[in-house]
Each structure stands twice: as C-alpha cells, then as structure tokens.
Amino acid sequence: MELSLCGMDRNTTIPASDTFDTTTKTLKYPRVLTIAGSDSGGGAGIQADIKAISATGSYAASAITAITVQNTEGVKAVHAVPVDILTGQIAAVLEDIGADAVKIGMLHNAEVVLAVKAELEKFGMRNIVLDPVMVATSGHRLIEESAIEVLSRELVPFARVITPNIPEAEILVGHKIHSQSDLPAVARELSCGGKVSVLMKAGHLTDDELVDIFYNAEEDHCIELRSRRIYSKNTHGTGCTLSSAFASFLARGFSLDDAARNAKDYINMAIASGATYEIGHGHGPVNHFFRLSASN
C-alpha cells in the first residue's frame, strides 16, 4: 500500500520563500501529543515517537514522563520527571497547540498513570492510542509492578486504541498466548467489553509470516495485517514507532481500519529499510525516514 504523506510526492519541488503566496488560506497541521519517556540513544520513546509522527505527516508535540539512560544495549537508569512538571507539559501543549490525537507510551508508576488520565480528561481528550510499555527490547522492565493494575483498570478503558505485544497482552489478560489462532480472542478480551480497539502485535511469535490482528471495537470486527518477517537486529523502538504512526494517521482523519493498515505498512517498511544499517552494539533503531533515504 502506498502511503500518502501530506499529499506530497517525493519529487515535489518546494519553491523559494519569496515565491510563496501569503494570501492563500491558512493551513492547519494534524497534531499529535506524545506522552512517553526519553531515550538518550534516540531509537525508542519520545525520540522515536517524534520521528514517526513527523514521517507520517503530522506535527509532534511531547510531554516527557521520565528520562532514561539508555543506548542500543539497554537501559542503565531511569529518572522520573516530577508529576507536576509532567502534567504541566501536557497542559501547556493542549492549552495552546491542541492535539487531534494523543499517543501514550512509558508510564512508570501508578501516580503517573492517574495523573496523565486526569489531565487528559480535563481537556476532553479521547482519541488516544495507548502503547502499554512494560519491558524494553533489551528486556529491562520499564514499569513498576503496582502500576500495571492501575494502568489496566484506569487507562486501558480510557483509550480509543491499545497496541500491546504478546508479553504485554499476557500480563494484561493474566494467561499465556500460545499461537496465532489465540490473537483474535485475546484482542476481544482486552477490549473492555467491546469499547476499546486493540492492535495485537504478533512479532513475538516464530512464524515466517507475521499476522497482526486489529480488533475494531467501533465496528466489532477483526482484520488481519499481514507481512513477511524481517530478520533484523534493528528492532529497538518498533512498538513506539507503530503506535505513534497509528496516532498520526488518526490525527489526519483516517478511519480506524485504515490507520491500522497504514501504521502497519509504515513500521514494516521502516524495519526493512533499517535492517542493513549498523549503529551501536546492540538492538539498533528502525529507519523512520526511509522515504528520505530512498530519494538520495
């Protein structure tokens, strides 16, 4: 599927600034607020979110929940941002810039989960894509045990879409997922009685073909999102990237099904394009701006 990023072809020539017609109608960016942790290595978290949102045609604003000390090899430390500073960031963005969609990533404790929900509720934000981040690609836990129940009870039902991988889904539903055939039922189980749409990511299964399942709660159906498995060590930040792209397409006005399809296509191409690069000594990032790389 060909992505339409802002309706601009790769070969479009942007005129010099003195040729712009300032009498034309004022344009508005599709806006996405991402609420997540910062990754000093640049491959995941806020950094991946901003890249993915920008690459898929939306304007990215951010509220940082925590500063992580990490690189491609793992997370060395986490420093929480004070809750009042976090909620202040959210308010500052929404009072001035606004948001057409919100992506939520790393929320490390129960206090942060409740504060983020309360602040978004205050501004009436419900077009929310929640990536229930619990463990980094390197295996490091990114959320306190006590926060998982609060996340499940308070924030999952509040979101429009959640995007768990298999280990995260197993934690949320409380049982093992054994095979591809389990995914549609698990997606419905996570939907809070058919109120929340669920993108179940199949990457942790071992099949050569990946079949992610998207349960559209608003239309009560499942669609399959198929792709070939790409064998690459550069998978750091794939979950952050996928959920951010999903939020970006929703901000641009895509339907749930089309946003899911386009987000899946985007992450698949970003992984494929980034597979042959080498950066760092561990799990490198995907190539968020693969279209720019292809034009060189």
Description:
The radius of gyration is 18 Å and the shape is globular. Helix 2 (83-96) runs parallel beside helix 3 (110-122), helix 3 packs parallel to helix 4 (145-155) and helix 7 (238-251) packs antiparallel against helix 8 (256-274). It has helices at residues 45-55, 83-96, 110-122, 145-155, 166-173, 183-189, 238-251, 256-274, 290-295, and strands at residues 31-39, 59-71, 74-80, 101-104, 128-130, 161-162, 197-200, 209-216, 221-228. 35% of the residues lie in helices and 20% in strands. Strands 3-2-1-4-5-6-7-8-9 form a nine-stranded mixed beta sheet, with helices on both faces. With 296 residues, it is of the alpha/beta class. The two termini are 22 Å apart. The protein contains nine helices and nine strands. The longest helix has 19 residues, at 256-274. Strand 1 (31-39), helix 1 (45-55) and strand 2 form a beta-alpha-beta unit.
Q: Secondary structure elements and their pairing?
A:
Layout: E1 31-39, H1 45-55, E2 59-71, E3 74-80, H2 83-96, E4 101-104, H3 110-122, E5 128-130, H4 145-155, E6 161-162, H5 166-173, H6 183-189, E7 197-200, E8 209-216, E9 221-228, H7 238-251, H8 256-274, H9 290-295
Parallel strand pairs: 1-2, 1-4, 4-5, 5-6, 6-7
Antiparallel strand pairs: 2-3, 7-8, 8-9
Helix pairs in contact: 1-7, 2-3, 3-4, 7-8
